[in-house]
Amino acid sequence: MPDDVWLVVGLGNPGPTYAGNRHNAGFGVLDELGARVGGKFKAHKGRADVIEGRVAGVRTILAKPKCYMNESGGPVASLRDFYKIPVDRIIVVHDELDIAFGRIRLKRGGTESHNGPRSVSKALGSREYLRVRFGIGRPPGRQDPADYVLKDFAPTERRELPFLYDRAADAVEALLLGTLEAAQNTFHADEPPN
């Protein structure tokens, strides 16, 4: 495949038990991108559900790994190898505790406190992929962060999710069409109020 193909991976946990969890924000963004493409996710031998299509006119593989968050790296590496996609054309979309709910942050590489990206970095042997970090905020009081991420979004948050998933999908499109810096200038400056 030519080098103009991109791989966009949403991280989450598979199955209906986890569907509304904060940890599945990456899947929510991928569902929005899939709707824009007009495709249906289909099983791929790389242990992921994929849609092959054009996002904002760019040839893109959309993927949702069919494994738990902390094992996401294996499917991402399999898809990279199958489609022969360089690491700098991979975008990973995931939830982020250390970013306020409703905020989007874009970056390349960096250290990961999150098990999903940590698994991806290890499997790819690189941190040089792009990341769309979907803010879910820290848990209130003394709630364990591990429990918090596996809880569904609160009703007030759920009302905002369609807008926020749409905005995160716009951020993915901005990365496909331009530079990281240009996308950061747009999405980091244009933040909703807390």
What does this structure look like?
With 194 residues, the protein is of the alpha/beta class. The chain has one domain (6-189): Rossmann fold (3-Layer(aba) Sandwich). Helix content is 37%, strand content 22%. It has helices at 25-37, 73-83, 115-124, 145-149, 155-177, 180-189; strands spanning 6-10, 42-44, 48-55, 58-65, 90-96, 104-108, 130-135. The chain has a seven-stranded mixed beta sheet, sandwiched between helices. Helix 2 (73-83) crosses helix 3. The mean pLDDT is 93.
- Write down the CATH class: Alpha Beta
Helix content: 25-40%
| Mean pLDDT over all positions | 93
Topology, number of strands: 7
Strand order of the largest sheet: 2-3-4-1-5-7-6
- What is the count of distinct domains? 1
Distance N to C terminus: 43 Å
Percent strand: 15-25%
Structural class: alpha/beta
From the spread of the alpha carbons, the general shape counts as: globular
What's the story with the biggest beta sheet?
Answer: 7 strands, mixed
